[in-house]
Amino acid sequence: xxxxxxxxxxxxxxxxxxxxxxxxxxxxxxxxxxxxxxxxxxxxxxxxxxxxxxxxxxxxxxxxxxxxxxxxxxxxxxxxxxxxxxxxxxxxxxxxxxxxxxxxxxxxxxxxxxxxxxxxxxxxxxxxxxxxxxxxxxxxxxxxxxxxxxxxxxxxxxxxxxxxxxxxxxxxxxxxxxxxxxxxxxxxxxxxxxxxxxxxxxxxxxxxxxxxxxxxxxxxxxxxxxxxxxxxxxxxxxxxxxxxxxxxxxxxxxxxxxx
Length: 259
Fold this sequence. Notes:
The chain has helices at residues 37-53, 68-76, 95-106, 128-136, 189-195, 245-255, and strands at 2-6, 9-11, 33-35, 56-62, 81-85, 113-117, 140-144, 146-150, 153-160, 163-170, 173-177, 200-203.
């Protein structure tokens, strides 16, 4: 079984994230880059499926030069190889353009299953998996908390407010996962050293079959018109209970339209 895991490098949530004044896109050089947290769960799930069913795991990343650090981290977890789509023409691509570009890149690979995190911590659109499946013409199984392969079918379990759903589709398919699905492994020193020798196939947009006229900031389907720093938090209201604390609290909640 050939499994492709989509991995995105995102700014570390522990650092301040900034937008560029020049083009209003995320300034990825302004903060440390890390693997998107949910993508680590996707990598782990792919490795577990490989251990059970055989095959290989390929990492597919689209991003700037510094994304190589996240690729090596993914390889050190146990993935076999990686494809890195790196081109200035992709800068500023929105979620739908990203899905298109990844679909084109996947068209150059052989795969039975595509696995990705359900959303990224930088944009949190949560739509790339669904849009990718649409571009590929494949079934999508989203928000998976459990994944099983049975012959030529993939079955997932998705938690809901009323219990859980079980969804099944024929392979090939696209599956997005949530954090409760597993516990990502920590790379051993041996795997970290081995990762340095694993192949990373770097592709331009043209190499991946991506039409440059359909990606990038100038062709984006969404636009950031303006942005401003978050306002400082105001001091809280202290309610002194002098026998009427309950009434004061009720009035405060009513004023704020909480009740």
